[in-house]
Design a protein that fits this description.
Layout (H helix, E strand, L loop, with lengths): L1 H36 L12 H34 L2 H13 L5 H20 L1 H14 L7 H32 L4 H28 L2 E3 L4 H13 L6 E4 L10 E4 L6 E5 H6 L2 H16 L2 H23 L3 H6 L7 H11 L1 H30 L3 H13 L8 H7 L5 H12 L1
Parallel strand pairs: 2-4
Antiparallel strand pairs: 1-2, 3-4
Bound molecules: zinc ion.
């Protein structure tokens, strides 16, 4: 039976790899061909110089070529961890380390899960470093210094311990103590935990990494408050964030629930946009909130989580699954780690579906923004500006964008805004 398990896994694993590899190659061919056809794609004529367009093509191709090798490397790492004896080694080490820490079952599980996570973080360092300090720096986006990179890593690691240890303890304890329906209890716990994070993230966690300052009083602040009032949105405050200390990519977002709900504007966005364009971006974000997109996504994710946990409950004692990946006997913690490593094939089918839903939400939020501002122009200008500044791919292959893109392309979005305006 172990062979069947391994066979199934490898078949899905290879299929996913092939699909993503082919999509990436198609996308690069497509982009190269479009560049050969004319200077600047029709939609961006006059908005972008031929030089800027060339740079955006170079950026897309550099990322695509990097992706080719990064994906190959990442997949080799996964295969190495699953079949190279890493899991049994970590299992032995955690049993030795944790056997004297009470309660030892949970302690072993926590050490095993954290050790596997640490193992992946270390092995993914080379690609992460090259992406940040190689490509992003080459195209002038990266502002992260080595010192900042290291302190970010250290903070992330400590935060992972502070949050991860109690979280894993609760999950492992429920798996052991809650009887047949443990998967339902774990689901309820994770659901409540996510909700707690929605409150803690903007108020306690994000400020560990960035400086948040209330937006100074002035025309922008007044106009944002008026806009929030107009659409009937209560906010816990408007903040600016020093995004520029890591990257020149720009953004704005809403975060939190209830009283902790806040609007966050990257300082990079404030620098790049006019007041009208910035307001259009915020109106779009308010649209996501008003139309309950975040909540809907959360519901979908919760359904998948519940299904995943139920599935796990069926496999938690299935010995061939554990033996296939070198673990001597079934264990709750082993099941957790295997599920997260093997969930790739499931998310592989979900990614395009969730992206389809996300793109639908983007169209709705764009229409919402154009409606409350009573003018589609500022939104169009903001979209073009963001595309130009971020050197986004102007001509992605349709299959590639259908699979990978959580946002429609700028051309699609502007067409939709104009269509809605009639
Ligand atoms: Zn959006």
């Amino acid at each position: 039976m172990e062979r069947v398990v391994i066979g199934f896994f490898l078949a899905f694993f290879l299929l996913e790899f092939l699909v993503e590899f082919v999509l990436n190659e198609l996308n690069m061919l497509w982009v190269r061909k479009r560049r050969g056809e004319n200077s600047v794609p029709p939609f961006f004529e006059g908005k972008m110089s031929a030089e800027g367009y060339g740079k955006s093509v170079d950026y897309t191709l550099a990322k695509g070529e990097f992706q080719r090798w990064a994906d190959l490397y990442g997949r080799s790492v996964t295969l190495f961890v699953l079949f190279g004896g890493v899991l049994p080694l970590l299992d032995r080490v955690s049993q030795n380390l944790a056997s004297r820490i009470p309660p030892s079952t949970q302690a072993t599980g926590i050490v095993f899960c954290l050790a596997t996570g640490l193992c992946f973080s270390i092995l993914s360092l080379p690609t992460e470093l090259y992406a940040t300090f190689g490509i992003e720096a080459r195209f002038g986006f990266n502002k992260t210094t080595w010192k900042l990179y290291l302190t970010d890593k250290l903070k992330g690691f400590l935060l992972g311990l502070v949050i991860g240890v109690p979280f894993l303890f609760a999950v492992l304890w429920l798996m052991e103590a809650a009887g047949y329906y443990w998967w339902l209890w774990v689901f309820l716990f994770v659901f409540a935990f996510q909700f707690l994070m929605l409150i803690l993230y903007p108020t306690l966690i994000a400020p560990l990494f960035n400086k948040f300052e209330p937006l100074k009083d002035g025309e922008l602040r007044q106009r944002i408050l008026a806009l929030a009032d107009q659409v009937g949105l209560k906010t816990g405050g408007i903040y600016t964030m020093d995004g520029s200390k890591r990257s020149t990519h720009s953004n704005a977002y809403f975060t939190g629930v209830g009283k902790s709900k806040r609007i966050v504007l990257f300082d990079t966005l404030l620098k790049q946009m006019t007041l009208e364009q910035g307001l259009a971006v915020l109106a779009h974000e308010m649209g996501h909130y008003k139309m309950k997109h975040v909540r809907r996504m959360l519901v979908f994710q919760s359904i998948f989580l519940l299904l995943g946990l139920y599935f796990l409950s069926l496999l938690v004692d299935y010995e061939p699954l554990f033996r296939a990946f070198g673990l001597e006997r079934p264990s709750n913690y082993g099941a957790l780690v295997l599920l997260s490593l093997l969930s790739g094939p499931a998310t592989f089918y979900l990614t395009p579906l969730l992206n389809l839903l996300s793109r639908k939400h983007e169209y709705e939020a764009d229409r919402f923004a154009a409606r409350v501002i009573k003018d589609g122009k500022p939104m169009e200008e903001a979209l073009i500006l963001l595309t130009v500044k971020n050197l986004s791919n102007l001509t992605p292959h349709p299959w590639y964008s259908a699979y990978h893109y959580s946002h429609p392309t700028t051309v699609e979005r502007i067409n939709a805004i104009r269509q809605a305006a009639g």
